[in-house]
Amino acid sequence: MNNHLTVSTLTLSIFLICSGAMSQRVTEASLRGLKTLAVLVTINQRERDPYDDLKDEIKTATQLKLRQAGLKVLERDVESVLSVQLVILKTSTGYVYGYDCSLLEEVSFKRNNRIISTPASKVWYGALGVGTGTNVYKAKELLMDEIDRFINDWLGDNQ
Predict the structure, then answer these.
(1) Which position among 73, 89, 104, 124 has the lowest Cβ density within 10 Å, counted as fewest Cβ atoms?
(2) 85: how many CB neighbours lie within 10 A of its CB?
(3) Which one, of 118, 46, 53, lies nearest residue 88 by Cα?
(4) pTM confidence score
C-alpha cells in the first residue's frame, strides 16, 4: 500500500517537473496586453469517481473569476489559452494530486527556412499534494487559489 503512494507521488512529481519549475513567472510583465483568452480544463484520473463533475465546476468558476477581473473569455478562436490540469490518483488512505495552470500562447520560429508555430507556456503555476479520505475538493480550492494568483499577476501587469 505504501509503495502505491510512493509511486503515485513520484508520477505526479515527474508530471509537474516536466511541466516546468514550481510556481514561477517566466518574465516580468509577461501578462501585459492580454485581453482575451480561452479556458481549457483537463482532469486526469485513473478510475471513474464521483467527482467527474469537478471539471465543469473548475471551468465555470475560472471563467467567472477571469470575467470579473476584466478579461474577455471565449470558447475558441483565441491566441491565448489558460490551460488548467488536475491529476488525481487514489491511494488506500486518500489521494495524491497535482495541478498546474499555464498560459499557452502561439509562438513562431524559423528553422531550415521554414516557419514553425507551436503553443508555448508563458506563465506557470503548480503544486503537488496529498489528501486523506475522499474529499478531493481541497485540491480544487488550492487550484482556485492559483487562479486568483494568476488574476492578481495579470492585474499587476495591466494597471
Answers:
(1) 73
(2) 19
(3) 46
(4) 0.75
CB 26 within 8 A of CB 121: yes
Q: Which of 49, 139, 67, 69 is nearest to 101 (CA)?
A: 139
CA dist 159 and 143 (Å) reads: 25
d(CA 100, CA 126): 4
Residue 81's DSSP bridge partners are: 38, 104
Give per-residue pLDDT as tens, 37-68.
999 998 886 665 555 688 889 999 999 999 99
Q: Which three cell numbers stand for residue 75?
A: 470558447
What is the separation of C-alpha 56 from the centre of its chain, rounded to a whole number of angstroms?
A: 14
Instruction: Convert the pLDDT of each residue in 92-109 to its tens digit.
Output: 888 888 888 899 988 888
* Dihedral sign computed on CA atoms, order 99, 136, 9, 49: negative
Q: Tell how strand 80-90 and strand 36-45 pair up.
A: parallel
Please give the backbone phi and psi of residue 154, each rounded to the nearest 5 degrees, phi first: -65, -45
Domain spans, the chain: 2-157
DSSP E strands in the chain: the ranges are 24-25, 36-45, 72-73, 80-90, 94-111, 114-132
| Beta bridge partners of residue 25, listed in sequence order | 123
